[in-house]
């Protein structure tokens, strides 16, 4: 126990080589990412500055009557107010606006008050002073009343009729509106607005012929007395003398309110505009300039941007950074990941190419349009091959990343060219479509054929853009030619830049992987001849990882190619690996456990060296380096522990029997590690029934998982479960039962009889399995 404790303390005190290596890798990783980010931001800032610089010539303003010496084309959509039409429109609206009339309630109230005052005088009179009463009543009514009418009005019945029947009727008619003369309303064909201040409401009256004037209401009153009340002529005359002076206008025109209402309506009226479309020819060379054309030219000149716009580059840079944030998210919980230096550098390089091409087109489109008659300025941006740049990205990045990069390329191109939403849709849809097509291409010939669906998509996007923003039909042939040329330029860019990306940035396309997967490759041919057992093992592992990667959505092609090369390090000492011993004596029997462990550990390092010498893809090199992780070579470790315990030697350090790593950093590396261990250890099964194979696969994968070898590989428990089922299915097919013929039954030896036991074979092939704890083991 004391020895074990000392060993544990010594092990804890001794720095772990893998920890130091991972620390160095983390630092370099951060430094690389920082360098790529700085390069990306510099490119983005430079393009934003280019977007704020206006290099194209300004608008030439010709005066009315002059002859234009050049074509003038609108560089942007613009609305120009047509002042004469606007004034005419305002005049029509002003004249059609109904005037405001105030409805007063005073005349209706005055009827009852004056009538009360009249009858007060009459009640205080006597038959002897009727003449005096007549003059007093005339003064109240401001109109002379006859003596006979005063005598009639003294009757109590007439008084009751006046107060009970006539006054309410007259008040109601007055409250509905009465004008002084109906000729005042004849000029208002659109009606009038009656403003009732007491009711706090405005009413639009269109039935002006139903609004009576004072004379008409007087006649209606006389008809009311004669027909409805059936009064005699004498009584009617007396009542008319009494009420006729009380009929006054209740509607009066309010000029100030009418003008205020007209002003409110006019302020809400939209002016009449000329709608100038981008690319529209305002005046052609040799034409005489009209006043309307001069107005358009002046409006274009006033809206023309300065040589450098301060805020525009800031806006472009800010929006570009926001789009790029999605590309720079960390892998944990993000939709995409761009953690490496070369990713940022490649995107920066392609962004610089696209931005420089967009600015070049923006500079030359106006001079070329002036010199080439059939060339229109609006057609030149269609030539920019944004889809080609996105196609290069599609060869090395995920589809989600391709969509975000396509949006970034399309946005910056439109800003540098001064284009709108229609052109953005043309660029973006074409780029995304090409990314999909390129990702489905399995060979370089397939990439060449991808130009056909790209052309179809570009033409559809162009047709949709033209439907949104119609232009002259004469531009259709030119624009269609540029769309077709853009598709072929995109193909040229994709096929020409992708080899540069593979060489300069160290990327591996699927086409390069397929070339390396060819079994006629010299390295694979040498492996087949020198180490046939390892070659056969690699073929089986390749089939297993391909099926497993497809099951969990990993890169199946990278897994398969990496599996073919993962054990090329065994070419240095092939006879020290049991699959290549061909039934001869195991050479490890005469070696110390530490020496055997060194030989096994060395094959990963030598495999990396051979891969680099033969210029294999960097991803394959890393998987060769990581396919054993930091796993423990348990067989030789346990053997060394037993020997040390029997001799009483110093405790064996477990780190000396572990692979240097690093642990698998990707899902693909983890799949190769699992398949390698499962396939090698499956050779120890004496009776490989489906249930035994499944239990064996589960045991091996669980031991690797418990040892922490998959902690950094991004493989989930769901992935491991699917891989276990896939590996079991493939191994069951390999070890399927055959019919046993009588002649074979007598001579056939037990499977794997050349190995002393299963762990010996697994260890000799490089399999690392975590040992079960024993009483004599040191952990």
Automatic annotation (TrEMBL):
Transit peptide listed as a keyword: no
Record-annotated membrane-spanning stretches: 35-53, 310-329, 349-370, 382-409, 421-438, 450-468, 480-507
Top-level taxonomic group: Bacteria
Polar residues composition bias: residue spans: 744-757
Pfam families listed in its UniProt record: 7TM-7TMR_HD, 7TMR-HDED, HD
Annotated spans, Disordered: 1-27, 741-779
Residue intervals of the HD domain: 534-681
Keywords in alphabetical order: Membrane, Transmembrane, Transmembrane helix
CDD domains noted in UniProt: HDc
Coiled coil (residue ranges): none
Keyword ATP-binding belongs to the record: no
Protein name, UniProt field: Cyclic nucleotide-binding protein
Organism: Oceanidesulfovibrio indonesiensis
């Amino acid at each position: 126990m004391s020895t074990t404790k000392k060993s544990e303390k010594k092990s804890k005190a001794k720095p772990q080589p893998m920890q130091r290596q991972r620390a160095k890798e983390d630092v370099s990783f951060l430094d690389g990412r920082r360098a790529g980010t700085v390069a990306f931001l510099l490119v983005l800032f430079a393009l934003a500055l280019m977007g704020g610089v206006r290099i194209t010539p300004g608008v030439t303003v010709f005066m009315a009557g002059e002859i234009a010496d050049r074509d003038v084309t609108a560089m942007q959509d613009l609305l120009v107010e047509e002042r004469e039409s606007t004034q005419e429109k305002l005049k029509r609206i002003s004249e059609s606006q109904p005037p405001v009339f105030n409805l007063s309630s005073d005349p209706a109230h005055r009827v009852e008050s004056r009538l009360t005052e009249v009858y007060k005088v009459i009640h205080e009179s006597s038959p002897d002073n009727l003449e005096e009463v007549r003059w007093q009543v005339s003064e109240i009514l401001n109109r002379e009343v006859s003596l006979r009418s005063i005598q009639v009005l003294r009757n109590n019945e007439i008084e009751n009729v006046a107060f009970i029947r006539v006054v309410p009727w007259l008040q109601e008619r007055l409250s509905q509106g009465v004008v002084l003369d109906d000729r005042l309303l004849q000029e208002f064909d659109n009606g009038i607005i009656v403003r009732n201040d007491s009711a706090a409401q405005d009413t639009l009256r269109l039935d002006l012929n139903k609004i009576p004037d004072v004379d008409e209401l007087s006649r209606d009153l006389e008809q009311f007395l004669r027909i409805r009340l059936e009064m005699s002529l004498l009584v009617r005359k007396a009542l008319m003398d009494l009420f006729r002076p009380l009929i006054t206008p209740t509607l009066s025109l309010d000029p100030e309110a009418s003008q205020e209402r007209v002003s409110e309506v006019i302020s809400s009226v939209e002016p009449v505009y000329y709608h100038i479309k981008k690319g529209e020819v305002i005046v052609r060379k040799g034409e005489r300039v009209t006043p309307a054309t001069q107005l358009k030219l002046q409006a274009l000149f006033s809206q023309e941007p300065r040589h450098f716009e301060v805020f525009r580059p800031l806006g472009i840079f800010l929006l570009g950074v926001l789009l790029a944030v999605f590309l720079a998210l960390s892998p944990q919980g993000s939709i995409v990941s761009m953690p490496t230096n070369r990713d940022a550098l490649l995107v920066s390089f392609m962004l610089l190419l696209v931005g420089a091409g967009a600015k070049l087109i923006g500079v030359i489109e106006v001079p070329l349009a002036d010199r080439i008659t059939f060339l229109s300025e609006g057609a030149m941006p269609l030539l920019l091959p944004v889809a080609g740049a996105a196609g290069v990205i599609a060869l090395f990045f995920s589809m989600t990343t391709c969509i975000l990069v396509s949006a970034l390329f399309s946005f910056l191109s439109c800003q540098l060219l001064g284009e709108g939403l229609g052109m953005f849709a043309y660029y973006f849809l074409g780029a995304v479509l090409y990314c999909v097509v390129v990702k489905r291409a399995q060979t370089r010939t397939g990439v060449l054929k991808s130009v056909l669906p790209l052309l179809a998509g570009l033409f559809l996007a162009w047709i949709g853009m033209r439907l949104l923003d119609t232009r002259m039909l004469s531009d259709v042939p030119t624009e269609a030619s540029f769309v077709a040329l853009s598709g072929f330029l995109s193909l040229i860019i994709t096929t020409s830049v992708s080899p540069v990306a593979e060489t300069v940035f160290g990327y591996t396309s699927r086409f390069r992987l397929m070339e390396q997967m060819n079994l006629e490759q010299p390295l694979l041919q040498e492996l087949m001849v020198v180490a046939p057992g390892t070659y056969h093992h690699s073929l089986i592992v390749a089939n297993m990882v391909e099926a497993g990667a497809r099951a969990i959505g990993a890169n199946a092609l990278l897994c398969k190619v990496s599996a073919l090369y993962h054990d090329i390090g065994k070419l240095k000492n092939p006879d020290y690996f049991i699959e290549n011993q061909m039934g001869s004596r195991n050479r490890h029997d005469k070696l110390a456990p530490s020496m055997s462990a060194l030989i096994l550990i060395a094959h990963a390092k030598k495999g990396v060296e051979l891969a680099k010498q033969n210029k294999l893809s960097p991803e394959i090199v890393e998987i060769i380096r990581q396919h054993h992780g930091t796993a423990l070579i348990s067989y030789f470790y346990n053997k060394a522990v037993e020997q040390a315990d029997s001799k009483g030697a110093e405790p064996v350090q477990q780190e000396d029997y572990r692979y240097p790593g690093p642990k698998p950093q990707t899902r693909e590396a983890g799949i190769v590690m699992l398949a390698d261990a499962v396939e090698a250890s499956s050779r120890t099964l004496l009776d490989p029934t489906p249930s035994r194979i499944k239990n064996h696969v589960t045991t091996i994968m669980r031991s690797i998982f418990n040892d922490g070898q998959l902690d950094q590989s991004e493989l989930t428990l769901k992935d491991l479960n699917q891989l276990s089922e896939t590996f079991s299915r493939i191994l069951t097919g390999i070890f399927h039962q055959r019919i046993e013929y009588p002649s074979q039954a007598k001579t056939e030896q037990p499977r794997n009889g050349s190995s002393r036991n299963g762990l010996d074979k697994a260890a000799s092939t490089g399999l690392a399995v975590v040992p079960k704890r024993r009483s004599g083991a040191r952990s």
